[in-house]
Write a structure and sequence with these properties.
With about 475 residues, this protein is an alpha/beta fold. It folds into two domains: about 300 residues, Zn peptidases (Aminopeptidase); about 140 residues, Roll (Aminopeptidase i, Domain 2). It contains eleven helices and 23 strands. The strands form five sheets. It has a nine-stranded mixed sheet, sandwiched between helices. The relative contact order is 0.17. It binds manganese (II) ion (2 copies).
């Protein structure tokens, strides 16, 4: 038994981490569960980057935010957003200080791994008597996870004349769903038994079953294919060539669910990274007072495929949003004003980390591994193979984050994604730091990342929201 003196010294000197549920009283618990319900409603609706922008605009408008194009001038307290091609969104609350002293920026991404259709997707297979969509997956998926599970179709079809058609099939209970079918165990010993994990299902085997009833017309050859084309034409007025100028995304079907008999977690498609987009948007909406520094929330597209493209974090979208703000705040602004704003800004790159999986602990180094329900995960560096491609935040900036979270009793844990030589990954942090913005990664841990049903903890969700709000409120 340690003496009383010794145990005090231990408390003073050692870093202790434990479940963040430990200190929650009845009132906290209600706030945590209410916030989780709001998030479940959001993630159930925001199934693609386009839907995420639509839903965010709706929530923002309901909370007094308006498009920046409605403003000729901006003053402290004004709340604005800027939509970039319906796929990425920038949000700001104008602070009290001169904007050139820097903004507090929360940046996340709203695209998630999924399955896209090819430009010429539809064919009929005369051996199986099925109509099929051919696909090309988007982002890093374990392809075997996407078979034999109900899938929904979200599409934006832009016809030759420029008119747009929205497709949304599979989310209403009465809707049909589509599916990729795996081989039965009885016959898969030779065909799949020797394959490596990445090839259990190959890219060209991610074929989606969309029909099996021929069109009732003896003069038509491809009866299965034609029946599907006829249905799509009747319902949406589209023809086969329209697939070429369409973005049709196949995503897991159905709503977010409570997970665990204690309902402590949420299972859903797309926590990575809409959980950070939602918590940062809500932190910005719920700011109790006009912040000293201008709050900026960025929701980027294309992170899962390398952040390229003009809606991704590698584009000039953040710069151009800041210049839209500066244009409306200052009487004539120069390139120097924009550069000073960037130089003085601080950012959190909001993205998820990998919670310890009880069955695969070997990929983590347990002292530095994110645990579910231990609070928001602060990640000084991401990258792979010796921090390669990482932002690696400066010690001074990590100290600032500690101070900011501790002041507001935010529960946090400092972690790495996995063991040193195990693998790795990146976030939008490198794109922000390229602009000379101080940047660090912070977001909740996820189980089953990039799977059709990812898990987050409700207490981590709440501490992420609280951590992001504490960050937006700082004036350092
Ligand atoms: Mn992510
Ligand atoms: Mn990801």
């Amino acid at each position: 038994m340690p003496s009383k003196e010794e145990s005090k010294l231990e408390d003073e000197l050692t870093l202790k981490l434990e479940s963040a549920w430990k200190e929650t009283d009845e009132k906290d618990l209600k706030n945590i569960m209410d916030f989780a319900q709001g998030y479940k409603d959001y993630i159930t609706r925001a199934k693609t980057e386009r839907e995420a922008v639509d839903v965010a605009e709706e929530i923002l408008t309901d909370n007094g935010f308006r498009s920046i194009h409605d403003f000729e001038k901006l003053a402290k307290g004004d709340k604005v957003f800027l939509n970039n091609r319906d796929k990425s969104l920038a949000i700001a609350v104008i602070g009290e200080d001169d904007i050139r002293k820097g903004c507090n920026i929360l940046a996340s991404h709203i695209d998630s791994p999924r399955i896209d259709l090819k430009a010429r997707p539809l064919y009929e297979d005369n051996d199986s008597l099925l109509a099929i969509f051919k696909t090309h997956y988007y982002g890093g998926i374990k392809k075997y996870q996407w078979v034999n599970t109900p899938l929904s179709i979200f599409g934006k079809v832009v016809k030759e004349d420029g008119s747009k058609v929205d497709i949304r099939i599979g989310e209403d209970e009465d809707d049909p769903v589509v599916v990729i079918t795996d081989l039965l165990p009885h016959l898969s010993k030779k065909a799949q038994g020797k394959r490596k994990m990445a090839e259990v299902i190959k890219g060209e085997e991610l074929n989606i079953i969309v029909g099996g009833r021929p069109i009732d017309d003896d003069d038509i050859d491809s009866k299965l294919k034609m029946n599907i084309l006829k249905l799509l034409n009747d319902e949406y007025g589209i023809k086969e060539e329209d697939f070429i100028s369409a973005e049709i995304e196949i995503v897991p079907s159905g709503p977010a669910r409570d997970v665990g008999l204690d309902r402590s977690m949420i299972g859903a498609y797309g926590h990575d990274d809409r959980v950070c987009a939602y918590t940062s948007m809500m932190a910005c909406i719920d700011l109790p007072d006009t912040p000293k520094k201008t709050s900026v929330v960025m929701m980027f597209d294309k992170e899962e495929i390398g952040s390229l493209g003009n809606t991704g974090a590698g584009s000039m979208f953040l710069n151009s949003f800041l210049s839209e703000l500066l244009n409306r705040i200052l009487e004539g602004y120069s390139y120097d004003d924009l550069q000073r704003t960037l130089n003085n800004s601080k950012a959190i790159s909001g993205d998820v980390s990998a919670g310890v999986n009880p069955s695969f602990k070997g990929v983590h180094e347990m002292m530095n591994a994110p645990k579910m329900s231990q609070g928001i995960v602060v990640t000084k560096f991401t990258g792979a193979g010796g921090k390669y491609s990482a932002n690696d935040a400066h010690a001074e900036y990590v100290s600032f984050i500690r101070r900011t979270f501790n002041k507001k009793n935010v529960r946090w844990q400092a972690c790495e994604l996995g063991k040193v030589d195990e693998g790795g990954g990146g976030t939008v942090a490198k794109d922000l730091s390229r602009l000379n913005i101080e940047t660090i990664d912070a977001g909740p841990a996820v189980l089953g990342m990039h799977s059709p049903f990812e898990i987050v903890s409700k207490i981590d969700l709440h501490h992420t929201y609280r951590g992001y709000m504490a960050f937006l409120e700082t004036n350092e």
